[in-house]
Specification:
Number of strands: 15
Helix content: 25-40%
Distance between the termini: 43 Å
Shape: globular
Bound molecules: phosphoenolpyruvate, manganese (II) ion
Order of helices and strands: EHEEHEEEEHEHEHEHEHEHEHHEHEH
Number of helices: 12
Strand order of the largest sheet: 7-8-9-10-11-12-13-14
CATH topology of the largest domain: TIM Barrel
Largest sheet: 8 strands, parallel, barrel
């Protein structure tokens, strides 16, 4: 069982709940988050039956959920959740395009990419300052300088920013600049990092691990939620497959399936799935048609000179094709484009 305390619950309220659990011979695991405190209860079936903590002071909600992930489970949620990133909604009623360069390289390149993103209908800007690269000799990102560039571009263009954090030690600096923290595929089960972003007070985009099952992905999200942070967006970005022609295989099934298992928004990243530009728009369309709550793509003003993932970056006519799909496909499924809400 999980007990969610109200945001204003006092230390005394928490102690009362813990004492109540222990009197009933249960064990309490308290996780004090920035936004709310979560108390996990472990005990036998009859302990949980008789606990009845709902009426105690400061208790917002008690949940008895059979899935191994509790706070992120769809159980007890009549409707899937909408989360907001700097005012931009991501959820079941809207469609959100996130676009930007794979990596922040220069102020000019980032600004130009942000303008392209906005023209295509994006309402959030992506861009990596800390790049998790397969090779230690590849461009590793500009670090704090990259965060500063992103913040300047946000002010200039007016798009809130999503950027990756790769090390829990960077949590303060990345949270200071970013509107949303991205946990990349390689760090999906970096539990210290998940706990750090869970305590950050920032919304989190959690990418699916290269070979993670839906349950492993949702258990990773539970680590974030357990720290009191339920502002989580799940991002399917392709899984490792046997086919060498594509970098990763976009799992379109993940969209409707994980939306059944969890109340959290699910988006797709066709750029990192395909690894090549000509497949990005077809895969983006497939994700939209499957009901994704958003799509995140790489764009770059001159992909041939990009320091990271140039072959998958959109520009020119291909970006226009994506923009056209964003206008038509989500609307056909009854969604409002986040760009229309902003505009
Ligand atoms: C990215 O979005 O920049 C990225 C590195 O993605 P992934 O973690 O999915 O490889
Ligand atoms: Mn990339």
């Amino acid at each position: 069982m999980v007990i969610v305390m109200a945001p204003g619950a006092s230390e005394g309220d928490i102690e009362t709940v813990v004492a109540h659990i222990e009197t009933h011979r249960g064990q309490a695991f308290v996780s004090r988050g920035v936004m709310r405190t979560i108390i996990g209860v472990v005990g036998t079936e009859d302990v949980l039956e008789t606990l009845d903590a709902e009426g105690l002071p400061g208790v917002a909600e008690t949940m008895r959920i059979t899935a191994p992930y509790k706070l992120v489970s769809a159980q007890n949620h009549a409707k899937r959740t909408t989360i907001r990133v700097g005012g931009v909604p991501i959820g079941p009623d809207t469609f959100t395009l996130i676009a930007g360069p794979c990596a922040v390289e220069t102020p000019e390149q980032t600004l130009e990419a942000a303008r392209m993103a906005k023209r295509a209908g994006a309402t959030l800007l992506r861009g990596g300052a800390y790049k998790p690269r397969t090779s230690p000799y590849a461009f590793q990102g500009l670090g704090v300088d990259g965060l500063r560039i992103l913040a300047e571009v946000r002010d200039e263009v007016g798009l809130p920013i999503v950027t990756e954090i790769t090390d829990a030690a960077d949590i303060d600096v990345v949270s200071r600049y970013a509107d949303m923290l991205q946990v990349g595929t390689r760090n999906m089960q970096n539990f210290g990092l998940l706990q750090a972003v869970g305590s950050s007070g920032r919304p989190v985009m959690l990418k699916r691990g290269l070979t993670a099952t839906y349950e492993e992905w949702l258990m990773a999200a539970e680590y974030i939620a357990q720290r009191g942070n339920l502002d989580i967006v799940l991002c399917e970005r392709g899984v490792r497959s046997f086919e060498p022609a594509i970098r990763n295989m976009l799992d379109v099934s993940a969209v409707p399936m994980v939306q059944r298992l969890s109340h959290l928004p699910v988006i797709i990243d066709p750029s990192h799935a395909a690894g090549r530009r000509d497949l990005v728009v077809p895969l983006a369309r497939a994700g939209m048609a499957a009901g994704a709550d958003g799509v995140m793509v790489d764009v770059h003003p001159s992909p041939e000179t990009a320091l990271c993932d140039g072959p998958q970056a959109l520009y020119g006519d291909v970006l226009d094709e994506l923009a056209a799909a964003v206008v038509t496909i989500p609307a056909a499924l009854g969604r409002t484009s986040a760009a229309n809400l902003a505009g």
